[in-house]
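Re: beginner question about structure tokens

> Can someone show what the tokenized structure looks like for a real chain? I only ever see the sequence side.

Sure, here's an example I had lying around. Input first:
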Amino acid sequence: MYPVYQFTLPAVLWMLVIWRAPAAFNGSRPSRCLWGFLVALAVTLTTRPPAVEHLIRVATGSPDLSVLIKHIAGLASNFFMLEYVIALHGRGPRRAAAARLRIAVAVSAALALTLLFVFFFEHDPDGPASRVTDAHLGDWAVRLYEGIVYAYLGPSSALTARLFWSNRRSVPRGLLRAGVVCLAGGCAVAVVYTVYRVVFLAGQHSRTQVPGPGTFDPVSETLPVLSLVLLVVGLVLPPLRILARHLRDQYALWRLHPLWSDLLHAAPEVAFGPRVGRVRDLFILGDRTLDVAHRAFEIRDACLVLRDRCAAAANATGEGSGAPLAGERSHARAEAAWLFAALHGNTDAGHAAVPLPSNARTPGEEIAWLLEVAAAYGKLSRGHDAPPPAAAARVRQEPADTAS
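And the corresponding structure tokens:
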């Protein structure tokens, strides 16, 4: 557990603090509460390394002030997490009096910890900072101190877990709901940790006489790590949902680009978007969902222009439009073969049957259909598949030639 506590989790949390800072200062109350939780939790974990304990000892002259800072920051993290879930989902105690009561309870607990620590603890100048509590678990002041910590930690974690769990169905399925479930699980593990610590401390009837920091308990070390990991995963999953959508949109743009690029010159009357290279297109930041939709609509409009040209050429030679082949994939391959022959000036294509438009009824269906067409078109462009000889009509001709 040593590397996890000392390096990994604090580093991850401080990165989350920096990442969420703009949203905290410019965003809503839930964003500010979440940022406060991250800051408090990062401070809690940062006080654990011996180097930080030594730095606090040198700066303040107190041999174990880091323990008090850790516990007060822990109370603050629980307070902000509870406020976050209440502000986010709008359920639970929302009255102004209830909000003031929660603040008063948190402040009172922090003040009580400070008074006990300053006036009633036995401080060991030569021992590690954790000795102030771990090596004196039988002392009444330490018992009261720990009791205040767990009396606040247990109920607040239980209430937070219940609110997260009860609101899980109000968020969409996928990573967002999985994140809420992880947050509920992390708070539930904190409740289990609280119960375990209360039982553990109840069995400490006398002071520990060892010169070290006290008795090492692996369960007390493992449960907080599990809780913190679940909380961090729960906070990271929703942004990963946005990242996954961005990567999916970028991949769709990458697949559509060859067909879109070839249609730029074949249908100049269509209002295409900015001409962007395929690689350069990957480095455009921001939400690309609308860009995918716009590109799909541009491809569709260009295909309709080519289809009208082919229909006019077919009517001039007495040939009708063909029926779509059986199956969506066969239809997509026929569409791709027709587009490939039309865009690359296949002189052997003649005025063959023109595939009917797709049956897509929604933008999502249209995009999915064009991705199938673009995939088949890409295989033809790379020479992996040969177009059927009668699957396309030549459309690179002047309107006067078509009319004749």
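Each token stands for a local structural state, so reading them left to right follows the chain. The chain has 13 helices and no strands.
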